[in-house]
Write a structure and sequence with these properties.
There is one protein chain. With 97 residues, the chain is mainly α. It has one domain: Ubiquinol-cytochrome C reductase hinge domain (Helix Hairpins, Orthogonal Bundle). The chain has three helices and two strands, in the order E-E-H-H-H. The protein has a two-stranded antiparallel sheet with strand order 1-2. Strand 1 and strand 2 form a beta hairpin. Helix 1 packs across helix 3 and helix 2 packs antiparallel against helix 3. The chain is elongated and about 45 Å long. It is found in: Mitochondrion inner membrane.
Length: 97
Amino acid sequence: MLQGHGQPIRVLGVAQSTVTSPVSTLCGVMSNGDLVDPIDLLREQAQNSSKCRSFVEKLQACGERQPKTKESCEEEFIDLLECSDAIVAPQIFKVLK
């Protein structure tokens, strides 16, 4: 989860505070009974990795200056998504049935 303007920003995935345990709920159920999509948790973990850190920082910087410009941050978001999906792709089929 990213921080911007003092408020949490969801880029992808489920906010960790709403999940009982990322490992136990990877293919399970959240505490409120909703099903957990494992790709959301894997993407969030990937975005927190050192490999995607620069993309997260670029998206945060864009998000801070975006209200002042006509910029959409689409390019930064796509770059972050490509980085996280490159990490998630080899892992996702291990957790799917």
